[in-house]
Amino acid sequence: MAQTNLSQTSMGHREGFGSTLGVIAATLGSAVGLGNIWKFPYVTGENGGAAFILIYLLFASLIGLPVMISEFIMGRRSNAASVGAFKRLAPGTPWFLTGISGVIVAFLIMSYYTSVAGWVYAYIFKAMSGGLLTTDPKVSEQAFTGFISGVWSPLIWQWIVLLVTGAIILAGVKKGIERITKMLLPVLFLLLIVCVIRAVTLPGASEGIAFLFKPDFSKITGATILAAMGLAFFKLSVGMGVMTTYGSYIGKSESLFSTGVKVMLADTCVSMLAGLAIFPAVFAFGFTPDKGASLLFMTIPMVFNSMPFGGFFLTIFFILASIAATGAMISLFNTPVAYLNEELGWSRKSATVVTGLMMALIGSTATLSNSILANFKLFGMTMFDLFGYATDNIMMPLTGLIIALFVGWRLSKYDVADELSNGGSLNNRTFVKFYLIAVRFVAPAAIIVVLLSGLGFFQFLK
Ligand code: PFF
Questions:
Q1: Residues whose CB is less than 8 angstroms from the CB of residue 310 and which lie 6 or more positions away in sequence, other chains included
Q2: How many domains does the chain have?
Q3: Which of these, 452, 54, 26, 28, lies nearest to 231 by C-alpha position?
Q4: More confident residue, 119 or 218
Q5: Which CATH number do you get for residue 102?
Q6: Which residues contact 264 (CB under 8 A, 6 or more apart)?
Q7: β-pair partners for 381
Q8: Model pLDDT, residue 15
Q9: Fewer Cβ in 10 A, N or C end of the chain?
Q10: Are 294 and 144 in contact (CB under 8 A)?
Q11: Does residue 33 have its Cβ closer than 6 Å to ligand 1?
Q12: N- to C-terminal Cα separation, the chain
């Protein structure tokens, strides 16, 4: 969802988030998005359900959270965005290249994220026009595949998404968006709960609930574990420096640890609600959970259509999903823009326009993966799948690994402890110890093992 304070003030000093709630809202604004509503359910569906979720939770706490806190530390300590933070904390060294790799990752994620966000935007209008009013799974599936396999319509929606996000970045809408986010996040939450209540009371829902809560570890492979780790990076928006930039806006009296924990818990809640809204419906309507990227678009319309005022609620659902997606995209789009602006001295306007045009160009290859580029494959994947796979499963973990090593080993322990305890004013020494163990040993070791085994360098699972 939305966020604030992405640029420096005209006075040259950085603005900060206004309040503790503002910090959480803004950070959650980046974290909560299509990752929760679209990606989490479909990747869980493809990887067997509950056992995958347990592994995901393990990675979110052992890797995602420490890396998020490390990014906060870097940002607040240096008072700079992702690339600048490395330059200030380790001047004259090549560490800043990690920041640049984060910029590239953000760009590549945007290339396919805008495509999916385009589908979500389009579904608002389809829902409004009554075009999705069916409870027949075949019609629902056909409506979606028919739409995305077109050429112009999905492309134009992707461009609209880029225009909207670019315009928000340019306008630098700050306080307004922060206020709207604080109001809309609870509404999204409530609507998801309505959805969950309907979904779990559908006849035949129990199979879906069991799928989400009864782990079957026989489905777990090295590739599944890699997907769970990638999802943790993606959903928490870590491993590319977005949270470093946010850290630089966090006030000196906020606790970085409790901010990270709250964001992780809230993000997990939204994902679980999305799962509970979708999987009971998957089984009740006779879909299979491994339908991939189309899962959300086929099941959610049917859940709403099987209740009173379904068309109305469906429209609201997609409006909220669009807002959530846009908030996440602002943080992604802003990453290359901030780099070009703050590090290379471009004006914010040229940086935004050039970044947007490049995203439209590269992003169109993802969108057209469902039509004219369906047979164009690199490493056996369409461009849509390749962007997702490479960023989730290779680039974010690698960048996250280097961030963990940087904060764990390059920064001094005393600086890290000082930043985490707000100059000694927070009484959290035990936590600092745990954090240091996680960031120096646990997270790097886990990332290396999962990455190497997931990519097939060695096998400890089938
Ligand atoms: N966390 C966002 C989501 O779940 O939709 C996606 C995202 C935003 C990933 C920002 C990475 C990022 F830096």
A1: 133, 304
A2: 1
A3: 54
A4: 119
A5: 1.20.1740.10
A6: 60, 61, 64, 65, 68, 236
A7: 378
A8: 60
A9: C
A10: yes
A11: yes
A12: 38
Residue 15 lies inside a defined structural domain of this protein: no
- Give nearest CA residue, ligand 1 atom 9: 237
Query: Where does 172-255 have alpha helices with state H?
Result: 175-200, 206-213, 222-235, 242-247
pLDDT in tens, 158-167: 999 999 999 9
pLDDT level of residue 454 (50, 70, 90 thresholds): confident
List residues bridging with 378 in a β-sheet: 381
List Cβ neighbours of 97 (8 Å cut-off, separation of 6 or more).
none
Which atom of ligand 1 is closest in space to residue 33's alpha carbon? 5
Structural tokens at position 14: 């950085």
Q: How far is CA 399 from CA 97, 214, 249, in A?
A: 10, 33, 21
Q: Which two tokens stand for residue 132?
A: 């999705």
Whole-prediction pTM: 0.92
Q: What does the DSSP 8-state code read for residue 11?
A: T
Provide the domain limits for residue 211. 20-461
Residue 29 lies in a domain: yes
Nearest CA to ligand 1 atom 4: 35
Say yes or no: CB of residue 314 within 6 Å of ligand 1: no
